[in-house]
Design a protein that fits this description.
The complex is a heterodimer of chains A (434) and B (437).
Chain A (H helix, E strand, L loop, with lengths): L10 E8 L6 E8 L5 E2 L3 E10 L4 E8 L2 E6 L6 H6 L10 E7 L6 E10 L4 E11 L11 E6 L6 H9 L4 E2 L10 H12 L2 H4 L13 H4 L8 H8 L1 H22 L6 E6 L5 H8 L4 E6 L2 H15 L12 H21 L6 E4 H6 L1 H11 L6 H14 L19 H4 L2 H17 L5
Parallel strand pairs in A: 10-12, 10-13, 11-12, 13-14
Antiparallel strand pairs in A: 1-3, 1-9, 2-4, 4-7, 5-6, 5-8, 8-9
Chain B lengths: L3 E8 L7 E8 L5 E2 L3 E10 L6 E6 L2 E6 L6 H6 L10 E7 L6 E9 L5 E11 L11 E6 L6 H9 L4 E2 L10 H12 L2 H4 L28 H7 L2 H21 L8 E6 L5 H8 L4 E6 L2 H15 L12 H23 L3 E5 H6 L1 H11 L6 H12 L19 H4 L2 H17 L5 H6 L1
Parallel strand pairs in B: 10-12, 10-13, 11-12, 13-14
Antiparallel strand pairs in B: 1-3, 1-9, 2-4, 4-7, 5-6, 5-8, 8-9
Helix pairs in contact in B: 3-6, 3-7, 9-14, 11-12
The chains are: A alpha/beta (434), B alpha/beta (437).
Amino acid sequence: MAPDLATTAVISIEEAENVGENDYLYGSNVDSPGEGFTGDSYGLTIDGWVLSRQLAVEHVEVLHDERRLLTVPLDVERPDIASGFPEVEGAERSGYHATISSLKLGREFELVLRAKVEDGTLLPLARLRGRRRPLPASTADEIQPLMVNTIGRSGSTLMVTLLSSHPDVVAFSPFIKDARVSTYWVNVMQDLAEPASYLAPFDPPDLDSPHWWLGSGAGKLGDPDIEYWLGGEGVESLANLCRGQIEVFYRRLATERSPQYFVEKYLPHQVVPDLLAEIYPRAREVILVRDFRDILCSVIAFNRKRGWDAFGRSEGGDDAEYVRTSMRQSAVTLAERLRGEAGGPRLVRYEDLVLDPEPTLTELFADLGLANDPELVSATIQRAEEDTAAMHHHRTTSDPAASIGRWREDLPEEIAAVCNEELGPWLTEFGYEV
Amino acid sequence: MALVEIADVSQRKGGSGQLLGGRLDGPKEDSSSDSYGFEVVGWALAESAPLAKIEVLQEGWVVAEGEPGKPRGDIAAAFPAVQHAAECGFRMPVSALDLRQEFELSVVARGGDGSFSRVAEVTGTRAPLPAAGEDLIQPLMVNTIGRSGSTWLVWLLSCLSEAVAFSPWARDARVGTYWTSVLQTLSRPQSYLAQLMPGPLEQQNWWLDRSDLHVGVGGDQALEGWLGGEAIESLAQVCQSRIEAFYRRLAEPGESPRYFVEKYLPFQLAPDLLAEMYPGAREVILVRDFRDMLCSIIAFNRKRGYEAFGRAEAGSDAEYVETTVANSARRLLRRLRDRGEAAHLVRYEDLIQEPAETLGATMRFLGLDASKEAIAATLERAEAESLDEHRTTAKASASIGRWKQDLSPELAEVCAEVLDPVLTEFGYEPTLVASEG
């Protein structure tokens, strides 16, 4: 049984797999952290080495959830490796040193290390699986996050507007601005929780460089006690900073009211909802889905209307590639989040929201512990409709209900086939026909 | 309540540098702002090519910058022969927490070749950050230049029973500077408006210093005003609380120090902001004969094998004296005058040659017990620590006046010309007299 991290270390590494020697590598190793490692700081330091057989290594990459977290050069002297490989050029500086904040990782995380060599080839080096202790939850009486986790063009603005039209929910002009106040402060916290930042005040190399405080700290402080405090308790206090700033913003916005929730949008790849769920004891998450094929039609139409590629569509490849990578990854993540802990996220389908708003909202409000009598639900919908009257710039069809199932007409047959192949299991899981 | 007041805007008159024309449309003279910032708006036009950059300078340091390129149909009509006149407008936010309380700014236009021309001068005042936290550990700020004996002074002050510092001999801790830098950055509209107008969220640092953000993008004037006013003051308190947490953690159990000691550099704004936020903040201005300091820097850099203390940015030792050293010396002098009784001058030479008297005067300035016993106990504690590693001469006292032997006549002449006025103000002998003597 895994140890209870709530009462033990901040980080533990439960599995460490090293690729070691193969046809491409003389060898490589993650020296630290190894299997069984436990640390009392939210900062994680990775030290290792790699020696390529043919082409020089450009850098080492650290990935989390298939996203690159950082790249580090081979700039650490390794006389031990040089003596083991005296004939190999570059062996004397084959070491790397990476520091990351575990607040950029999920509570159960997997890190993949790979080396990029001169011709662009990516060589797997190691995989680390571990766990992080959750941030302490606040006991203060604060406005709680109501997190709408979704993919763009899923009707999230409509969802946020409907939710914010409830008297116990607050949001900043959801139909005009896409405010991300909590994401902003959590990102500030994540970056200040990087060892490179919280160690920056000690021997800073260049105080007149603009953001010296974000990333100039390196190496050991020479006072383990203070270093652990900075990386442990100090980081936990940053969570108070972040929560406090979110609170003053929404209190200011709510004026005389005392809302139960503030509502904002989040993206499936973000760690932000996890961190907010840790620091707010009554945070709630709504997973909003829409038929992914209709989303694709909407993304294509929206981008055509705007004249540039948004929603991750600009990262190259054709529509089929977009479905295989970006959309598939998002669908997988949303489904995994939904399957998580009991009493966790609540699923809302866009189609139900548009076609049957009253029962959908009544159930949702009830689940969120919000007042949900018929008059209130009706008034909420009425308020939202007034707010959304001027939303034509946001739409790609004249009527939201008419956009349901548009993929049958709009999507080329071969792309529809790719959707069914790549997204089929998740479409079924979310209740859509394949 | 006005947080920024613009007293005077002085526009360029006639030709200036390579500009065909230029004007500051905002801020206006006698205007004010209810947030900790204002916008610099105007146009500037060079004949040959579009300008590369517009900079707002304070004491020679860039406090805001932006690229011209905003549409200006009126200027295009006035200069029909200049094609790029149609896009010669500029608009950029200036954060008041990047400014002194009484500020003098120069708005300059920079050409692609590095040349620059003055557009306007702006003077004004900003409100201080609200003071809070009388019960907190107060900053004891040693404002100085490198190689002035600051590590020794910080160490000595940290030996006061009422003070705390983080390992002065091992580390140069700048916790106060760190949190004021965080505060300054997050107080810029280019940062706090990112909450309302997020950039691509997968992009690193999307929340920080975004050039596409300017006042008004949030579409809610009242809320933006609050973000630029009250919210900044609340953030200042958060930063104070982080500094406090660090030094409380560092203090010995059961101790309740009155001061935390750190070094600051003359160009920094951190001491101003900390002095505003902490009602009991104290500032010590430490100087050392700038000629000895120069010798020490040259020796230190030679010993280490690289050019530190800003020496790398100058082409020669003479240029280094004329620019970095002279500017820092003048800044320290100005600081001493501006801060009045809130600052205390310590000369390194006095600290070494008359330690008890100098420490006693400093302790009195800090409002501490300056009895003979307290001074002796502090000095005894401080001297127990070895200083060998930090020295470039065998004994600190031997380094006093080293410039008379170490400095070349040519460099001494440069020092005489640019440093003598400041040296004499700080009570040092002029170079010429000293050399002859």
